[in-house]
Amino acid sequence: MKYDPLRRYLEGVETVAELDFVEIERILGAPLPPSARKHAAWWSNSAEGHVNAQAWLAAGFKTEGVDLAAGRIAFRREASPLEEPEHIPGSLLERIRARLGGTVTVAPGVDLTEPLWLYEQDDL
């Protein structure tokens, strides 16, 4: 994934990483998207649909103190990085899901081998 280099970098940080956007781009080996420089929300700690945030959250970090004018952000460790046991598939999202764990309840009549599009929204 595009942001895996940032995840790997943060996994080696003990508590806080204060980085400017140029340093982050150097770590990524690619430029940040324009929205990262324009919108503080890009740096939010919401993993749902945000592969950028999934990277730092998977490393056990949360962002704080984004300064768009100065082009700086701080990452503070909140938890241990995700462990990667051999039986857990390698994608970042799969590792996040594996770490969250939990119980799933399947509605009666739902066949998990069938594609989801076969069901109406009310069936799920």
Short description:
The chain has 124 residues and is α+β, with helices and mostly antiparallel strands. The protein has helices at 4-11, 21-28, 34-38, 51-58, 92-100, and strands at 16-20, 61-67, 72-77. The chain has one domain.
Topology:
Blueprint: H1 4-11, E1 16-20, H2 21-28, H3 34-38, H4 51-58, E2 61-67, E3 72-77, H5 92-100
Helix pairs in contact: 1-4, 4-5
How would you characterize the largest beta sheet?
A: 3 strands, antiparallel
- The N- to C-terminal Cα distance equals 30 Å
Number of helices: 5
What is the SS-derived class? alpha+beta
DSSP strand count: 3
Across the major sheet, the strand order is 1-3-2
Poorly predicted ranges: 84-88
Element string (H = helix, E = strand): HEHHHEEH
- Categorize the overall geometry: elongated
Please state the average pLDDT score.
81
Q: How many structural domains does the protein architecture include?
A: 1
Give helix % range: 25-40%
Walk me through what this model shows.
This protein has one domain (1-124). 31% of the residues lie in helices and 15% in strands. A 3-stranded antiparallel β-sheet has the order 1-3-2. The chain contains 5 helices and 3 strands, in the order αβαααββα. The longest helix is centred in the C-terminal third of the chain and has 9 residues, at 92-100. Strand 2 (61-67) and strand 3 form a beta hairpin. The two termini are 30 Å apart.
Can you tag this structure with a few keywords?
single chain, 5 helices, elongated
